[in-house]
């Protein structure tokens, strides 16, 4: 072994005893140090190089850890991955363009049911899903629903993690408003929001086209009141008394919110919370580590809580699934599969979860015991996000139609139009019904 190869093997952290660079005189084949260290079922193709599209970080340490895994994969398996970062809201349109023209990134790390917008353009990853379930599983139920192509047992993506979207609040804001704790019911939540507004520390939740935070809380509100876009047969049922109750609830809640939330995207609530403009919002576990780093006094004052229960009498949480998919036009599908397998190895995945500071919740049972969810009690609620979340489509399928409805913000716009007075409650619901029927025709 050359000195360069020994150095490379040491850096990968893999002890390779008696490694030989074997050259076959007949075939001229070479087994490199990287190939020998790449202990994977899915072996990368010779000369493989990948491009991946993912969303821009919300926690720097998460991105640093992910890029470390990318570096480790290159060291161990000899495959370079060029990672392209886009804003959360730009991933879906860019992935859709790539699917349409059969050109672009080999892999996409997307959101929710994005893969189901173009299921026939994606590599079958059932073998990867089965391998991971055998090693680290089982999968949480929502991962199975998100992963499988509608009406089949074929996996078209691997949900690599979830982003728990919960209530973030300042304890001092509740105290100032005379509220003992985060309310457990929707009625109590409305009353608490009124008191917080009067105390000058209002609630603030996005009603603009915020793919993560906006979709999360309005779907919670809809489902908490018994409403649904479609039924179990994908028939549109949005125009219902339950939906009207939910929309009227959100319209009243909007009156107690901070000004400007109708234009908020996924970053505005973070800024408003850190600046003291709002005392409560919904978000992943990204505000808290940022506060610990830059504003320890805010972090000390912060905590998190689960969503209140509505008239349906059960949790109706909606958290972001993060599916990773491989396009069929990729020249190196095995290398892409190999990276997903590599990502889930304990020495990589556990390190990544720790660095994400509970912003990411695992979809496989083995990793639910990661200490990141117990080391700090303020982060414990995020441990259940993957297991408790409902899925895009809710009572219906999670296929292409549900993905389209989510991408078009049908439910979010319904609430926003009514809450802001842009439309009456009935007109906002009627418009959502027309839009949904166009998608679910």
Automatic annotation (TrEMBL):
Transmembrane segments: none
Predominant location: periplasm
Pfam entry (one): SBP_bac_8
Entry annotated with the keyword GTP-binding: no
One GO term describing the cellular component: periplasmic space
Cross-referenced InterPro entries: Bact_solute-bd_prot1 (IPR050490), SBP (IPR006059)
Subcellular location: Periplasm
Superkingdom in the source lineage: Bacteria
Keyword Transit peptide found: no
Keywords: Periplasm, Signal, Transport
Family stated for the protein in its record: Belongs to the bacterial solute-binding protein 1 family.
This protein's name: Extracellular solute-binding protein
Organism, scientific name: Microbaculum marinum
Upper lineage: Bacteria, Pseudomonadati, Pseudomonadota, Alphaproteobacteria, Hyphomicrobiales
């Amino acid at each position: 072994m050359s000195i360069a190869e020994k150095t490379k093997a040491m850096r990968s952290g893999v002890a390779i005893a008696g490694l030989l660079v074997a050259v076959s005189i007949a075939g001229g084949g070479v087994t490199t140090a990287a190939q020998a260290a790449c202990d994977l079922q899915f072996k990368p193709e010779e000369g493989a190089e990948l491009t991946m599209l993912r969303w821009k970080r919300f926690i720097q340490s998460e991105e640093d850890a992910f890029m470390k895994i990318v570096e480790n994969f290159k060291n161990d398996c000899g495959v370079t991955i060029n990672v392209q970062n886009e804003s959360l809201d730009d991933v879906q349109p860019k992935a859709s363009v790539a699917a349409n023209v059969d050109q672009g990134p080999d892999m996409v790390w997307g959101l929710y049911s994005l893969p189901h917008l173009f299921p026939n353009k994606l590599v079958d990853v059932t073998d990867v899903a089965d391998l991971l379930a055998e090693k680290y599983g089982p999968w949480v139920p929502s991962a199975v629903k998100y992963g499988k192509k509608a009406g089949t047992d074929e996996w078209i993506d691997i949900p690599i993690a979830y982003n728990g979207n919960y209530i973030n609040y300042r304890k001092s804001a509740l105290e100032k408003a005379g509220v003992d704790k985060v309310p457990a019911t929707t009625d109590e939540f409305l009353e608490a929001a009124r008191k917080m507004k009067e105390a000058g520390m209002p609630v603030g939740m996005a009603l603009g086209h915020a793919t993560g935070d906006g979709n999360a809380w309005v779907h919670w509100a809809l489902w908490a009141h018994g409403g649904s876009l479609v039924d179990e047969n994908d028939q549109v049922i949005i125009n219902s008394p339950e939906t009207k109750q939910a929309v009227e609830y959100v319209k009243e809640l909007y009156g107690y919110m901070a000004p400007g939330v109708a234009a908020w995207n996924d970053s505005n609530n973070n800024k408003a919370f850190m600046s003291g403009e709002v005392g409560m919002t919904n978000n992943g576990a990204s505000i808290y580590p940022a506060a610990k780093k830059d504003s320890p006094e805010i972090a000390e004052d912060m905590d998190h809580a689960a969503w209140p229960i509505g008239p349906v009498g059960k949790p109706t949480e909606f958290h972001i699934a993060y599916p990773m998919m491989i396009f069929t036009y990729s020249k190196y599908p095995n290398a892409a599969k190999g990276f997903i397998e590599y990502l889930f190895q304990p020495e990589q995945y556990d390190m990544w979860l720790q660095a994400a500071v509970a912003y990411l919740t695992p979809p496989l049972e083995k990793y639910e015991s990661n200490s990141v969810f117990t080391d700090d009690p303020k982060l414990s609620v995020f441990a259940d996000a993957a297991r408790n979340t409902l899925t895009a489509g809710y009572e219906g399928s999670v296929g292409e139609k549900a993905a389209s409805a989510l991408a078009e913000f049908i439910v979010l716009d319904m609430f926003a139009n009514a809450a802001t007075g842009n439309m009456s409650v009935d007109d906002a619901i009627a418009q959502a019904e027309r839009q949904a029927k166009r998608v679910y025709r």
